[in-house]
Structures are given as structure tokens and as C-alpha cells.
Amino acid sequence: MDKLYVICVDDQREVLSAVFQDLAPLETWLNIEECESASEALELMDELDAEGQMIALIISDHVMPGKTGVELLTEISKDARFVHTRKVLLTGQATHADTINAINSAGIDRYFEKPWQADQLVECAKTLVTHYLFDAGLDYSQYHEHLDQDVVLARLR
Questions:
Q1: 4-156 has which CATH code?
Q2: In the chain, what are the domain boundaries?
Q3: Which end of the chain has fewer CB within 10 Å, C or N?
Q4: What is the CB-side half-sphere exposure of residue 111 using CA atoms within 13 A?
Q5: Residues 9-44 pLDDT 10s
């Protein structure tokens, strides 16, 4: 079974480790990668795309040096290679205006404030990856047991 990719981006190592640890139960069917900056995430996405890998989900912090999470997710949303990639903004410092901008410009699928609930983050990841598979027109059968079954049933109707 080919694994799909989830990329987590945060400039704070301890936060990145916490996200990775929370998503660890999904590693049986997802590759979870960590990046400490927007530029590192974009480089990784270029490499994975060149290898023909599927990037299903990006989970990014907002406040980072260089490029913010909203700027990163906006750039990804404008890249035709990643049109189906799902996006989550995870932050404790975004303003109301930042959040609106993330929704309008970056087309984020979900927003979590820090501290987040691990079970909600895992369920969100499962749901968004399920949507990714259907939107990208990929064969979901090899992942079926891991997917959000409510989404699968709704998509098959």
C-alpha cells in the first residue's frame, strides 16, 4: 500500500513533536513529515511531488519567522500540483483577521487553537485525508479501513 503524506510545519520543535506524537496512530497508513519552516515545507513538497508522492494534508502553525502559516497555505492553494491537498492552520496567536484571511486566501479546511485536543486532530486528519482521496480521484480501497466511514458513505451516495 502506498502511503499518503501529511506534512506538519511549526518553528517550535516541542510543538512539532507534540503534533507528530498525536498523529502517530495514523502512521500505519500515512507518512508524517515534520518541517520547521515554510521554506523547508515547500522544498519537501517539491521533492515529494517530483517523486510522484501524494501530499494529502498540510498542518501548519501560523506565527513563524520568514513566511507565516497563512502565507504558506495561500501559496500551496495557488499551486496546481496541490489543488486537492487539504490544509489545517494550528495556532495560538492568530488574530481574528488572520483567521479570516486564512479561510479566504488559503482555503483552509480547519482551524485549531493551541492547545488542541489530540483526538480531534486525529479525527480531523482522517476526515480530510478521506476527502483528499475522493477529490483527487484516487482508489481509496487500499485505505478503506482507515478512512472516515461517514465521509466514505456520503461520497458513495
A1: 3.40.50.2300
A2: 4-156
A3: C
A4: 20
A5: 999 999 999 999 999 999 999 999 999 999 999 999
